[in-house]
Specification:
With 356 residues, the protein is α+β, with helices and mostly antiparallel strands. The chain is built from eight helices and 16 strands. The structure holds aspartic acid.
Length: 356
């Protein structure tokens, strides 16, 4: 059985993947002494519980998270940039139908897959974001191209797709993004909204059903990555299909710099996942950085304050992964679980899914 090593603070624990879910204090920081580089990823937060998982499903998530983070780890180890590590790691998750990004994106009310993504360079505070695209295979690549090859920070819809074509990014037929599992989720979400509508005889207030109680599944699974490279540069990125049954061109937090993604070499790099409306209202990713900058909180303290106190009081659910300029990593969430993984410069890997 594969061994994974989890380091919480200065205490190093060794345990098998099977025992991973027994880990305590998941919100504690992962620290290594003066790391040269580190990387942390998420694959969405929500009702991720051991009892709702088959061993096969758990193994599939474990394997894909590990495959993805190792891509970024290798880039960092070979002296590559944190931006490259973030982009290429996210590409692996975008290509997997397991996550709500790229190939596994959820469906809109109208039956499309509309992708949002963003990326930020902590060294220059440059940022790029794309929203509501239907044909770009790797939305995170588009976000990076917008950052590097356009005078803008955010492009949306058709215009973003034209720009992607001009940049020679990979364009696919919208049918590429179809997965049966996500389509069924849309059908269930629609049924629920119609029932609610019948009950009040009014337009449903919810723009989308959040949890799917029938299958105890979470209809999100946004992906994100934050990394510190050997040159001390931080970067973060996020990619998503948004929320099942979203309509009216709804855009979540994932492409909003400061809400879904933020990176600043003076503080930290953050990627968010969860109920986007709350993350936008709370400016979650930037708020963590601001608490570090203005109040001099540690990354762990700032993340805890923002997720467990401020976001929770607002009524929001979800989590963040983050890394600070010293390579300390945090995975903070107020949901039953979050797909997540870290690797430090010693090659020590942690993969987690559940709270405890
Ligand atoms: N934050 C994303 C959104 O609201 C969804 C998620 O992270 O699961 O679009």
């Amino acid at each position: 059985m594969k061994k994974i090593i989890l380091i919480f603070g200065v205490i190093a624990l060794s345990f098998s993947c099977k025992n991973e879910s027994k880990a305590e204090a998941i919100s504690e920081p992962v620290e290594t002494e003066n790391p040269q580089f580190s990387i942390v990823i998420h694959g969405g937060a929500g009702t991720i519980k051991k009892e709702n998982m088959t061993p096969e499903k758990e193994a599939a998530y474990q394997q894909k998270l590990e495959e993805a983070i190792r891509v970024g780890y290798d880039i960092l180890k070979n002296g590559g940039t944190s931006l490259d590590a973030v982009e290429k790691t996210i590409n692996v998750l975008e290509d997997s139908p397991l996550f709500n990004a790229g190939k596994g994106a959820v469906f809109t009310h109208e039956g499309f897959n509309e992708h949002d993504a963003s990326i930020m360079d902590g060294k220059t505070l440059n940022a790029g974001a794309s929203a509501g695209t239907k044909t770009v295979k790797h939305p995170i690549n588009l976000a990076r191209a917008i950052m590097e090859d356009s005078p803008h920070v955010m492009l949306s819809g058709k215009g973003a797709e034209i720009f992607a074509t001009e940049q020679d990014l990979e364009i696919v037929d919208p049918s590429y993004f179809y997965t049966e599992r996500r389509f069924k989720s849309l059908e269930r979400a629609k049924e629920k909204d119609i029932i609610e509508q019948d009950h009040d005889g009014d337009t449903p207030k919810k723009i989308a059903s959040y949890y799917d109680d029938d299958i105890k599944d979470y209809k999100m699974g946004t992906v994100g990555c934050a990394a510190l490279d050997k040159n001390g540069n931080l970067a973060a990125g996020t990619s998503t299909g948004g929320m099942t049954n979203k309509r009216w061109g709804r855009i979540g937090d994932s492409p909003i710099i400061g809400a879904g993604t933020y990176a600043n070499n003076n503080t930290c790099a953050v990627s968010s996942t969860g109920w986007g409306e709350y993350f936008i209202r709370g400016m979650v990713a930037y708020d963590i950085s601001a608490l570090m900058e203005y109040k001099e909180l540690s990354l762990a303290e700032a993340s805890k304050e923002v997720i467990q106190n401020k976001l929770t009081k607002l009524g929001g659910t979800g989590g963040i992964i983050a890394i600070d300029k010293n390579g300390n990593m945090v995975m903070e969430f107020n949901t039953p679980g979050m797909y997540r993984a870290t690797m430090n410069d010693k090659g020590e890997l942690y993969v987690g899914m559940f709270k405890d």
